[in-house]
Amino acid sequence: MSASTKLSNSTKALCFLATNRTEPQSSATISRHTGINASKLRRLLSDLAAIGVVATSKGAAGGYVLARDPADIHLQEIYCAVEDRKAFHLDVAALAFGETGEGAAINRYFLDLFAEIQVDIEEKMRRLTLASILASITQDPPPANQPNS
Fold this sequence. Notes:
Blueprint (H helix, E strand, L loop, with lengths): L2 H17 L7 H8 L3 H13 L3 E4 L5 E4 L8 H8 L18 H26 L3 H9 L11
Antiparallel strand pairs: 1-2
Helix pairs in contact: 1-2, 1-3, 1-4, 1-6, 2-3, 4-5
């Protein structure tokens, strides 16, 4: 699963849980409502449970629930929980050992650039909460003859 898919699927599942907070939701129910493969969903929810965003319960009435208020769950912590690599990734192992000159300088340039971009991405994600995402996606769209602002 690609980086953006993991983050997007995790956020979809958490939004579903946020809007269905009355009782635990099974992975089958979440899968049916979000379109996320149930086994991939369980892996993502397990990662989120490990950091305390989701709580799980077993048994016939068991399932997943949000462990915290949506206003206290930041996109950056979701991202860090489910991602195994950064959004902008340069495979350092692929860089030729002993490479010198222009090739090495270009590699260093991109390593520094991607590190800087990664910091910018994570800073922006720290400012976004699950509550703000829910508010954004549930707003009424503008009428068809009105441009988006």
